[in-house]
Amino acid sequence: MTFKTTGIAASDGVAIAKAYLLTEPDLTFKKVEGQDPKAEGKRLDEALAKTQDQIKVIRDTAAESLGEEEAKVFDAHLMVAIDPELIGQIKTTIDSEKVNAESALKEVTDTFISMFEAMTDNHYMQERAADIRDVTKRILANLLGVELPSPATIKEEVVVVANDLTPSDTAQLNRKYVRGFVTNIGGRTSHSAIMARSLEIPAIVGTKTITDNVEKGDLVIIDGLDGEVIVDPDEKTVKSFKAKGEAFHKQQIEWAKLVDAKTETKDGVHFELAANIGTPKDLDGVLNNGAEAVGLYRTEFLYMDSENFPTEDEQYDAYKAVLEGMNGKPVVVRTMDIGGDKELPYLKLPKEMNPFLGYRAIRICLNDEGMFRTQLRALLRASVHGQLRIMFPMIATLDEFRQAKKILLEEKAKLKDEGIEVADGIQVGIMIEIPAAAVLAHQFAKEVDFFSIGTNDLIQYTMAADRMNQQVSYLYQPYNPAILTLIKHVIDSAHAEGKWTGMCGEMAGDQIAVPLLVGLGLDEFSMSASSVLKTRSLMSKLDTSDMKELAAKALEQGTVEEVTALVEKATSHLD
């Protein structure tokens, strides 16, 4: 029977393919005593052999699609799966207690995990706990005859269906096979949505119940243009959505003609159109879509894709690759923004009631200067390979900025003393994502070289509404007059001091917001690479004087609905 639902259209396009369920299976079991040790030992051996084969396949697939460095984690998993001491203790438990293999496995591995997690002064050993936990889950699944989902091993065209997708899940998605995805939770600014736009695949998030209504292998249509999901559609519906997908593809071909065009409004005013990236591999999308800069390089993915803190040389290589790849065009690198929903297994952060308002980003860096200085040294060394701009995230006070810049200048002086070349004229700016910094922008503008407005967080902090919380998602309002007023103050403050303001939040590529931002005088728009060309197309149809009038009127409105209606009326003739 056909099932239809709607969600938040998070990434444009139409996908039609079989469902691949990325959901956690039930791995519960009961302890059974009085078992035959020989039979249980054989079951364990079979499960271990199957586990080892699976890890090898996942490792090879990850190496092919993600690279050797990212695949190293599976080497560690394989070492656990063949570890003679661990296996020996499980078999000893089976023999002495005459319990089922599942019970012996859990008893022994829980002991190892607890032991390694207790080694708080040894990051390497703490990581082994995570490896053991992952491998134990796979062995247990094989003992129970349950299949664990593994996105890295997908070898046919699918639509991924999940409750949510973690950054590590999305990192394993292969664009060759994953046509799109749909989730129960999330919003346009969740990491899964941002990753979908980076991968340029359709996505719908926040459907609430999609995993309850899809089975593995069901044919699924996801309409990332209008947020509609259809499970088990009839032939007429499939034909209709194929036509819609083809029409969108033709539109993309038209946009592609603008890849080498200047980003100018109808009256000839230039704006810098940039793209956001997470890794050097994202550069292809930036260049193929004609972006004029990298407006946000999220360096935390370097940390999240590593088993340990990345070394200075590892970071230098990554930054150098991006700077050289952009051929002299500007690259804004955000220093590590870990915390909130971005965790590192090897960095033990405190458990907090509200991590988004807690110990994260620059707050960690200023407290753990060693880690911060390593990153800054790598950035400064790489600066000679292109036009580097450094940006500090989550700045709330002038003191924080001054402290961070002081550390940066200290490391620059040390490198010069060591005879290591550092580029002159590196711009140093901050993300405006905390309302306190936005309100005090006229003071910050005297000391920074630029602002980049991070609207994803600025909106949730200003509206006091967690952007990941479905119950208050209606309060994520980019066009709310309060948000627009803050943005105007930030832009005006920068311009008063001869500085520039960019925007790296998802609002920068929002087709309703762009006319308003042009009118407000935003200098640089940075977005998912897949949004660059359609934004360039839209800007070419806008007249800046008309947009200034539109923005002024929008600031006088009382509700987001009134602002939206104003923009739609003002731009209705453009199509």
TrEMBL record:
GO terms for biological process: phosphoenolpyruvate-dependent sugar phosphotransferase system. The active site is at H191 (tele-phosphohistidine intermediate), C504 (proton donor). Residues 6-128 form the Phosphotransferase system enzyme I N-terminal domain. It catalyses: L-histidyl-[protein] + phosphoenolpyruvate = N(pros)-phospho-L-histidyl-[protein] + pyruvate. Residues 154-227 form the PEP-utilising enzyme mobile domain. SUPFAM superfamilies: Enzyme I of the PEP:sugar phosphotransferase system HPr-binding (sub)domain, Phosphoenolpyruvate/pyruvate domain, Phosphohistidine domain. Its EC number is 2.7.3.9. It comes from the Bacteria. This is Phosphoenolpyruvate-protein phosphotransferase. It comes from Bavariicoccus seileri.
